[in-house]
Design a protein that fits this description.
There is one protein chain. The chain is of the alpha+beta class. The protein has helices at 2-8, 14-18, and strands spanning 11-12, 20-24, 27-30, 35-38, 47-51, 56-63, 66-71, 74-75. Strands 1, 2, 3, 4, 5, 6, 7 and 8 form an 8-stranded antiparallel β-sheet that branches.
């Protein structure tokens, strides 16, 4: 289960793309509470985490309006 969570984490909903304030290339800060992290690039994917305002993220890539991110020690595989 832990491996699944680590592998699945960090593909971000479009909502997060709107609510990340860029700090520098490849990084940002969540600007609102309750931003959902999903297991894949779409609203049909499960919510696997919720980020709070002020959480720092590393943006790995952006594809079709969705961001693949890393936060804390977790990164999508």
């Amino acid at each position: 289960m832990k491996k699944y969570i680590i592998t699945a984490l960090c593909v971000l909903a479009l909502v997060l793309a709107v609510h990340i304030a860029p700090a520098e290339a490849g990084s940002g800060t969540v600007t609102q509470d309750g931003v959902n992290v999903r297991s894949g690039p779409g609203l049909t994917y499960n919510i696997i985490n919720t980020l709070t305002k002020g959480t720092g993220v590393t943006i790995i890539e952006t594809q079709a309006g969705w961001q693949h991110i890393q936060f804390g020690s977790l990164k999508a595989g």
